[in-house]
From TrEMBL:
SMART domains: MR_MLE (SM00922). The keyword Ribosomal protein does not apply. Keywords: Lyase, Magnesium, Metal-binding. Its cofactor is Mg(2+). One of its GO terms (biological process) is amino acid catabolic process. It holds the Pfam family MR_MLE_N. This is L-fuconate dehydratase. Residues 240-262 are annotated as: Disordered. One of its GO terms (molecular function) is L-fuconate dehydratase activity. Its EC number is 4.2.1.68. The gene is lgd1. Residues 198-320 form the Mandelate racemase/muconate lactonizing enzyme C-terminal domain. It catalyses: L-fuconate = 2-dehydro-3-deoxy-L-fuconate + H2O.
Length: 468
């Protein structure tokens, strides 16, 4: 009997992270990490969970947009949906009235991210595989059919994508076995939020080194002296062999995984992130003044839509050996296409739910592989780490075929709210999600939703009472 989508539920879930300074950077000073969460229901037990990420106010607006999109799926046969996820994505993004309030950007697009991801979660559950495994087991033709291809064929044709995937097909099993054994490389951001004291930064950095990490990111852009001071604190710890985990020799700073990253003597790499605060000339001047910290890249030096601005920053910083990374606010595949075509980035930072779900992410993974730019997804927030490990596994196993130069962001916040939280092994690398029931690993605990649903969940109702 055919299974049909019968309805949906949305939840506006907000965590009070602004109270601790978690997630603070030069642009985002009071984040309450939030999830615009959706569950798609069917005529059977099969369900699909998805979400997109916001930082608080406006999460209700995203939930309203999710409802408008999810409505369009009610009555549809799930096998017809799964048979061609690229076509399904085109259908979801093509409602002419909803399209007007994008197109393919802003609230309506991140809402589509939640809905498309929920469909992928449902598809993976129906096949008893995690999402990454579902995708890497596809034939090249199936994977290309699952990709959002509209508007990118000037950079990458279907035929080129097919040829790339076919070239990697016979070695997928080797890479899958390798990453299951080693884990996927990761880096930490949680030590370097702007809202933390120097002591807290130092303690968290020591803990991260001890946990096996060798890539670290620091927020910059609010105050140059403070950036230099905190950067020196971090460098003094990550470059000092005494803090390395017991028995671990320093890594070779010129090894194949570190070359070109400004790695220090122990093989540690520092990245800096400005979260869009500067104009282009200001970005160039400011980052030059931080050159002694030897960052691998400056992330989001200017407005996320400014492709030529990023290209100008990259060109100006090249003599200093500092690269440019961006993508967490790049709102669709066309922006990534242009960043790649304009040679504006050294590192491509896709976001799992600012792009409109797995189908659109696949198009960017394919383009980045063609242009030879490593993909290091944006994570942190809430739920993003759970999502992105799947995307990096797809990239490594089926698409780019490389992982040693890549690093996947890891922030140790809020994982306890998920039924299948991501995890890090003793070498500071992501473990491979392996439960056949976990889908896209994004199912939130019912008790977490009950506590943090805005504004009537038990936490927020209690907080309101306290302030009365
Ligand atoms: Mg960032």
């Amino acid at each position: 009997m055919s299974i049909k989508i019968t309805g949906y539920e949305t939840h506006d879930v907000r965590f009070p992270t602004s109270l601790t300074g978690d997630g603070t950077d030069a642009m985002n000073t009071d984040c309450d990490y939030s999830s615009a969460y959706v569950t798609l229901l069917t005529s059977s037990d099969l369900v699909g969970h998805g979400m997109t990420f916001t930082i608080g106010r406006g999460n209700d607006i995203v939930c309203a947009a999710i409802k408008e999109l999810a409505k369009r799926l009610v009555g549809k046969d799930v096998e017809e949906i799964f048979a061609n996820m690229g076509k399904t994505w085109d259908y979801l993004s093509a409602d002419s009235q909803l399209r007007w309030i994008g197109p393919e950007k802003g609230v309506i697009h991140i809402a589509l991210g939640a809905v498309d991801n929920a469909l992928w979660d449902m598809y993976a559950r129906s096949r008893q595989k995690p999402v990454w495994k579902l995708v890497v087991d596809m034939t090249p033709e199936e994977l290309v059919n699952a990709t959002a291809f509209r508007y990118i064929t000037d950079a990458l044709t279907r035929e080129e994508a097919l040829a790339m995937l076919k070239a990697k097909e016979s070695t997928k099993a080797e890479r899958e076995a390798r990453v299951r054994e080693l884990g996927y490389p990761a880096y930490v951001t949680s030590a370097g939020w702007l809202g933390y004291s120097d002591e807290k930064v130092a303690r968290l950095t020591r803990e991260a080194v001890h946990a096996g990490f060798n890539h670290f990111k620091m927020k910059v852009g609010a105050d140059r002296d403070s950036d230099l001071r905190r950067g020196r604190v971090i460098r003094s710890i990550i470059d000092d062999p005494q803090y390395l985990p017991q028995g671990q020799p320093p890594r070779d700073p010129n090894g194949p995984d570190l070359v070109g990253k400004n790695a220090g003597p122990t093989g540690s790499v520092l990245m800096i992130d400005a979260n869009q605060v500067w104009d282009v000339p200001q970005a160039i001047e400011y980052v030059k003044s931080l050159a002694e910290l030897k960052p691998w890249f400056i992330e989001e030096p200017t407005a996320p839509d400014d492709i030529l601005g990023h290209a100008a920053v990259r060109k100006a910083l090249r003599p200093y050996g500092i690269g440019v990374a961006t993508g967490e606010h790049a709102h669709n595949r066309m922006v990534f296409k242009q960043l790649l075509q304009a040679e504006a980035i050294d590192v491509c930072q896709i976001d799992s739910c600012r792009l409109a779900g797995v189908s659109e992410v696949l198009s960017v993974l394919l383009m980045a592989a063609k242009f030879g730019v490593p993909v290091c997804p944006h994570a942190g927030g809430v739920g993003l780490c759970e999502y992105v490990i799947h995307l990096s596994l797809i990239d490594y196993i089926a698409i780019s075929g490389t992982m040693e130069r890549n690093v996947l962001e890891f922030v140790d916040h809020l994982h306890e709210h998920f039924l299948y939280p991501c995890s890090i092994n003793k070498n500071g690398r992501y473990n491979v999600p392996s439960d056949p029931a976990e889908g896209y690993s994004i199912e939130m605990r019912k008790e977490s939703i009950a506590e943090f649903e805005w504004p009537h969940g038990s936490y927020w109702a209690g907080a309101a009472q306290k302030t009365q």
